[in-house]
Amino acid sequence: xxxxxxxxxxxxxxxxxxxxxxxPNTKMEESSGPARWNCRAKxxxxxxKVAILGAAGGIGQPLxxxxxxxxxxxxxxxxxxxxxxxxxADISHMDTGAVVRGFLGQQQLEDAVTGVDVVIIPAGVPRxxxxxxxxxxxxxxxxxxxxxxxxxxCSPQAIxxxxxxxxxxxxxxxxxxxxxxxxxxxxxxxxxxxLDVVRANTFVAEVLGLDPREVDCPVVGGHAGVTILPLLSQxxxxxxxTQKEIDYLTDxxxxxxxxxxxxxxxxxxxTLSMAYAAVKFADACLRGLRGDAGVVECAYVxxxxxxxxxxxxxxxxxxxxxxxxxxxxxxxEYERSGLEKAKKELAESIQKGVxxxxx
Length: 359
Fold this sequence. Notes:
Layout: H1 10-21, E1 48-53, H2 60-68, E2 73-80, H3 84-92, E3 99-104, H4 109-113, E4 118-121, H5 137-154, E5 159-162, H6 167-181, E6 189-191, H7 194-208, E7 219-221, E8 228-230, H8 243-254, H9 256-264, H10 272-290, E9 295-302, E10 310-318, E11 321-325, H11 333-358
Parallel strand pairs: 1-2, 1-4, 2-3, 4-5, 5-6
Antiparallel strand pairs: 7-8, 9-10, 10-11
Helix pairs in contact: 2-10, 5-6, 6-11, 7-8
């Protein structure tokens, strides 16, 4: 078959360009002008459909850029209540396989999540100096509830990755919404605690003089302060720490978010490292969906590892989402003490999330 040339298909080529500039069924365009920011590439790679809710925010923008680079993503939906057109236009110019589509405002939320395989939720307000994750609760709880109601209606089979803080409470909120809608599947709702693992690997590597990519430090519990419990006794490669090193590492891993908030001095929170960690976790979910074997990461999920209904620990990811939850393994005395502190605070945060939806 003779390859198509520019001269042989002028009408088809012009039609493709016109469709690219003003695609049919565009949802974001309010005016009659060309909707460049909802453009579609011709074709597109085979892969998964991913939606990012909160794509114009401090985490959402770098997260969207990194997901556009992921070869497992064929279609990328970007949703936010403001500024989505600009972010969509910008990222859509990247010469990678994923087709990017933008959705703006509450009226387009359902379209943004319809038919997607994975939903990533970084939406909400960031922490500022002096704020705890619980200070964010009243704002972010309502946002997560609204987003999850749309997911339950339009994409109940999607795997949902929740980043919005406080994760210890927003995951229970999401679960209650899905229960109320009759769509809850505990395997498909995951709180993203990957940043704690990323930090642990980095800080442990600094102490040991290793490449962080060679280090694996499990982090269990939750995703705030003392609920973040690094299991330094289980670090790979096997190693030993002095008590001073254990105290230093535990404190720094637990307060890594505060370290960034204070360093940014009122201009933001951990956005770039969070986006990196979120993409690392989303990629693991996509590899699980593809059927890859042995995909194991830490995540905050519905769990029976402890007496609490939710807990972060190592899980194996597969086609259904979470396919196996691993026990904590042997803990030393320091870690057992930390676990009790973590559970006490975690129980309160979980109840706060559950009560928010049931009230």
